[in-house]
Request: fold
Amino acid sequence: MHDSFEIEALKKNLETRYEYAGFWVRFMGWSLDTLILTFLLMPIFISLMTLSSFNNELANQANQAKQISASIHLIANFSFIFVAYIIPLIIQWLYFSLQYISKHQATIGMRAFGLKIISETGEPINFGRATSRYLASFLSGAIFFIGRFMMAFTPHKQTLHDIMAGTYVIRKVEVQKDNSV
Reply:
């Protein structure tokens, strides 16, 4: 009983503040999200290997028979592209965008490190802004991740995709209350 009283007393002396999130804490949140997405996308990658094997078998049979329907080859190639690129992009887009607009305003990885996304006015972002932030993140990583590293040189620690989407990533910090006032 005595220990819990001390913990409660300490909690009363703390106040929550937010600060702009820096590179390493954001990197850790992104890393956790990447790990989660890897497990979510694993069935697709397994399907991709199966589809690739089927496509190779189809090509081998065609070479042996010296004939292949152009439409069958086109369908096999489109299926490969769809499974390899389009489905994973849709899953990633929805993973990030839907969590950005959730009540937590953050992905699972971001929540683990006390991060959340806000608009330039401090409000939660909408789906359109979340989508534009996701799409702009590709530009941030396009040229040696310069768009991500630029957060070290912006006053509010914004990446290129934050600036383009009009967002900030903030971090929840608990500090000792100033009781001298």
